Amino acid sequence: MNATGRSWARCAARIALVVATAPIALACNGESSAAALCKPGVRVFCRCEGGAPGAKRCNDAGDAFGECGPCNGAEAKPPPADTAGPDATSSAGSSSPGPGRPLLASCDTAIQCDSGVCEQGYCSSGCAKPSDCPYPDAECVPYHNETVCMRTCATAADCTDYGVTSQCGYTQSIDHWDVRVCAQWGDALAVMPPGASCSPIDPGSCSLGYDGRAVVCTADGVCAPGCFGPSDCPTGSQCDTTTSPGTCR
Fold first, then answer.
1. Number of structural domains, the chain?
2. 199 found inside a domain
3. Are residues 123 and 212 in the same domain?
4. Domain check: are 11 and 80 in the same one?
5. Are residues 210 and 182 part of one domain?
6. Which of 27, 45, 161, 207 could form a disulfide with 78 if both were Cys (CB 3.0 to 4.6 A apart)?
7. Digit-coded pLDDT (tens) for 150-207
8. Are residue 108 and residue 229 in the same domain, yes or no?
9. What is the pTM assigned to this prediction?
10. Residues 182 and 211 in one domain
């Protein structure tokens, strides 16, 4: 299921949980239609159709977000901390001093975070279900015998704010969706598996930005074993480009 379909599926489940207890109308684009939805002028992280990262701005009335963008195929990193504001759902890279940093802000120690948890280089929290995390900026992911809200990403570049050991890796969320999140994966780092959907305009997207990973995005928009050039192959092998995609030999 693509990102749009997943958002609708998640939305339907969450509406069922809140409709009996909260007089708030929800829209199936992931946003609340109630007043004071967001802080005017705040820009938060979002995903374009197909999964490319972008940003959307809260309007002057504070009751709706604008469209996610840019979505022309160019990579767009999450908004910098000085434009995200203290009330933003996503605040990756925040460098505000002292305690009180929100979920997903970068951190060094747990005392800096509102949640009291600093894992993977950012403020996090435990979770028991997907709705415990601010989707789509975070996912509830099993990690080292616990389940944690973890920052979503599209490529390695999205995790650079969280330290040199933070990597964008493929895994599954608590409800078994395929996700990519920033974590200190180390040797457990996984790229996109064969058959996963990807963007044909970015043949290297299945490798999540890591050289030496022989997985490419084909013209059909799915990840498959193969290579388009030397950097796609492990050290000691070469890319045989007589086929498209080629094979590391």
1. 2
2. no
3. no
4. yes
5. no
6. 45
7. 999 988 999 999 999 999 999 999 999 889 999 999 999 999 999 988 888 888 888 8
8. no
9. 0.58
10. no
137's tokens: 């900026």
- Closest to 216 measured CA to CA, from 192, 236, 243, 242: 192
CA dist., res. 109 & res. 119, Å (int):
8
Residues 39-90 pLDDT 10s:
777 666 666 776 666 677 778 888 888 888 777 654 444 444 333 333 333 3
**CB–CB of 56/41 below 8 Å?**
no
Q: Is residue 82 part of a domain?
A: yes
Nearest partner of 86 among 97, 101, 65, judged by Cα: 101
Residue 225 phi, psi (nearest 5): -60, 140
- Residue 17 within a domain: yes
Q: Could you tell me how many helices (H) and strands (E) the chain has, helices first?
A: 2, 12
Contact 41, 60 (CB under 8 A): yes
Based on the fold, state whether residues 213 and 138 are members of the same structural domain. Answer: no
Contact assessment for residue 41 and residue 79, using Cβ atoms and an 8 Å cutoff:
no
Phi, psi dihedral angles at 234 (to 5 degrees): -60, 160
What are 78's two structure tokens? 């999450």
Angle (CA) 162-166-170 rounded to 5° is: 125
Helix, strand or coil, per DSSP, at residue 82: helix
What is the residue range of 229's domain? 205-248
Residue 35 lies in a domain: yes
